[in-house]
Amino acid sequence: MVHVTIVCAIIGKGNVFSVEIDDAQSMYYLRQAIEEQYEEITSRWDRLQFFLAKRDGKWLSTDDSDVAAMHSGEVPESLEVLLFEKIDDKDDICNVFVPTPRTKEIHVLVKICSGEYIKLKDSEYTTWMNELKYYRDRGECIRRNCGDYCDQILNKIDNLYEFPVHPMPFICVAASSGMGKTQLAFALGGRRPWFYWPAISLGQGSQLIYLNFFSFSKEFNSFTWKDDPMKKPEEDILDTTSEIYESEHLWTYGFIRALLEHCNSKSNRPAQMICFEEETSLYVEKCSRNSVVAARKRMGKNAVPFFILDEMSELYGGRNKVAFQRNVFRACGLVVIVMGTDANITKLASHSKTEKWMTLFARLPPYQPMDLVNEEKQAAWIRMKEQYPVLMDIVVNSRGRFDKYFVDKVAEFAMKGESVNLCDLLNNAFDYVGNSTYNGKGFMYKKDGKDAHLMATAYTNVDHESCIASSTVPEPRPKKRKFAGVVGTQCMHVHFANLVEDQHIDVMLLEGKLNVDGVHWEPRCRFPKVEEDVLLYLAVVGGKDSLGDANRYKYKYSAMRMFSKGKKHITQDNGHALSSDFITFENMLAQAIFCASRRNGVRGIPFKDFFYGLLGEFQNEFKWMEMIMSDTRKSVGVTELVAGYNDLTALPDTMIPFLAPPNATWPRFIVETRDRGCNFGHLIRATNKDVYVLNMENEDGVLPFLCVSKHWDQKLHIGMMKEIILGLNSAWKEKWALVLVFCMKMTDIRLDWEEQSIGCVKIGCQNCRVDWIFQPIAGHEKKLVVVMEMGSLPIFNQS
């Protein structure tokens, strides 16, 4: 038995002391000897960790500058790399201390543990695990079918690790709900391992896929709160080179280091998402950036993982929290991908720095159809898409979230019987998609959500190319839409707008300003074109039974009611409008026509019912209205009003189609469903503020009706009326037979009426009272002017 003198140094304190012990004993007895020798740690012997103080095969010298640096509480990066190979208590001292220790050497680095153990475990709930399998299968499908897209992200990750800069740029995947962000997180395998978890706090109501990562999310947010970035200056949190990241010991750093150590604990770890199917205990304590960097440097070139933080939003915890959670990875030279619907995460930057900032991916792979888990449903879906190919066209041209609802409902509906009518099938499926989206996203419960919903319906925030092609539109042509970036990036978070970029871009930070290719950049959003997300416009903006508000079971919101609960100035679609109130009115009128056209589903709606529904859209609560003659107090219908007008004889039963949003074009595969009994059409708003409906069954014939809204806020007198009729005859010639003229009130023009073949009737939009102004002599009726008296609308009387 030989006595050896072991010299120890306390990590982070620099205290040096020696103990004598027999070399035949185990490290357990060395632990006890240290307890007896160094009184400060006697009560914490079970919290000690030992590391060999050996660098490049040699013991550290007591004169080493790094050892001296520990006296100030610093742990130099060169020593951090030694703190990974712990000495086991069962090891014999004679086998551990080779070569034999001598004087003026440090042999053991003693770490007094002050951290905590956490347990990570994937969910065991069957429902959650089924959702996890669904996303894994989707990820495999995306990687298989959209490999080029995945390679763009993986190439960027490899490039960032191959040519690192400090701070590390991040990758941002930003898109509205249902575009496939989370599915993409499961598709990035093949080159290096990665970690994924939602950055938000999870609980009841969270998406099932997120709940599989509950323990991960919980611990990450717990350590964030311990570091308390919310109480620190915002500029320091935004600046990745500030003292917070460079010098402070952070719990979040400790969490990241523990993950790196876990990743490195298994040799030849597969290049896939790291999961915790078995409960895993990890030790986490506050540490410095140097400690995380040291852990990263110990890993092989392709073994360093990347990290995906989903649902990143400053709305959950504030700017400081989300910027801090992103920047702790960047400060350590680790690639982090932040995903979310909040476009503001792209610009949480220091106000004075110049650096490579981020790579933005704003377009995701298209939806990849997969077999349904339920075999009976899958068989029903196959049968339906073979019978009605339009179903697959709809799926291919919509986002995944809507597709999932749509396919599920189509299959369920088809299972009820062998004979399935396409109109009934679509009505049921659209209703299910709309209501599932309302309930899942909850945008109709929020003021910003309601406003965004109105913007989507107005269709003013898309490229002007989405307007109906001039070849199908009689003059005057529809108004061109100028791109409206002012709608607000909140439309991506609360609704279904997306960033305008159609390919990934690299963004620089130049003195605090975001820049792309030398041009100032900021996030701007637009809503998808119809052909990009057809279910958004077929179902989510309103179908047969899913119009208005999510509270429809309690209250049927009319178009006017929807606008009264939203902002007065909701879009900037008409730069020539006399006032912002007109913008609101014009959109409300288009919304009323749009909604009334859909109240009977995809078959279209007879004009007489459409008109009663249109009047209902101007009530506080939607209901089918009945018209009353003012002089007789008797009920009167559309058929009686147009009696004698040859061009309007068929009008009451003329089908008003299921309309697209204003100036939007249905794809051909939607229009062609008329052969199956569907009736889809277009709502056109022309440059002179007229609104008319184009009936797809007779594009060249007389229009079902025209609307004129240019005098909505005035008392309509005979001079205005003459101007309107002159304009209609000039622009539309023989193509018009019925016009609805919207005004606040009409003066008595009976004695001044000169058009002997044109009748005129006034209808109160809210009280539905009918008054004839002029009725042509029997046999001479050609055209009819219906003055829609609005009165003082509540949407313009709010304080």
UniProtKB/TrEMBL annotation:
InterPro entries: Crinkler_N. The keyword Kinase does not apply. Keywords: Secreted. It is found in: Host cell; Secreted. Residues 4-111 form the Crinkler effector protein N-terminal domain. One of its GO terms (cellular component) is extracellular region. This is Crinkler effector protein N-terminal domain-containing protein.
